[in-house]
Amino acid sequence: MALLDQEQIKEIIPHREPFLLIDEILELTPGVRAVGQKYLRPDESWFAGHFPGEPVQPGVLTIEMLAQTGAVCALSVPENKGKIAFFAGIDKARFRGIARPGDTLLLEVEVTKTSHGISFCKGTASSGGKRIVTAEFSCSIS
Q1: What span, in angstroms and rounded, lies between the C-alpha atoms of 135 and 127?
Q2: Burial class (CB in 10 A: 0-12, 13-18, 19+), 54
Q3: Alpha carbons 18 and 13: distance in angstroms, whole number
Q4: What is the pLDDT of residues 65-110, one digit of tens each?
Q5: End-to-end CA distance of the chain
Q6: If we measure between CA atoms, which residue out of 17, 26, 24 comes closest to residue 44?
Q7: Which residues are the active-site residues?
Q8: Superfamily of segment(s) 6-141
Q9: Structure pTM?
């Protein structure tokens, strides 16, 4: 059951279609942890070119989905209301598996530290119980 749907997510982060890449937030502890979800619709535009005849979810878009989930977490803190979370860095990104059209991605993000307007996060994307992407990333809140 969704804690936040897309309309509620839009009240927290500025992303909009076609670049709002999370469908719902399942768990949220503001400033600490968020769990999001994205259903990979077979008609997602990127599948037509990645790859023709063998559609696979692009890893970089999965990292963006993790970042948007992290942004919901970081921007849910009252003092960050109305701000934007900009990528500040991506570290230790690992692509461990693939997702395909029709899969649902579970996006788990933990804010490990916040210092001087920078939130540091660890994220894991999984599909069907299998971890497919892990990364550490940071975002500047302004």
Answers
A1: 15
A2: exposed
A3: 14
A4: 999 999 999 999 999 999 999 999 999 999 999 999 999 999 999 9
A5: 31
A6: 17
A7: 50
A8: Hotdog Thioesterase (3.10.129.10)
A9: 0.97
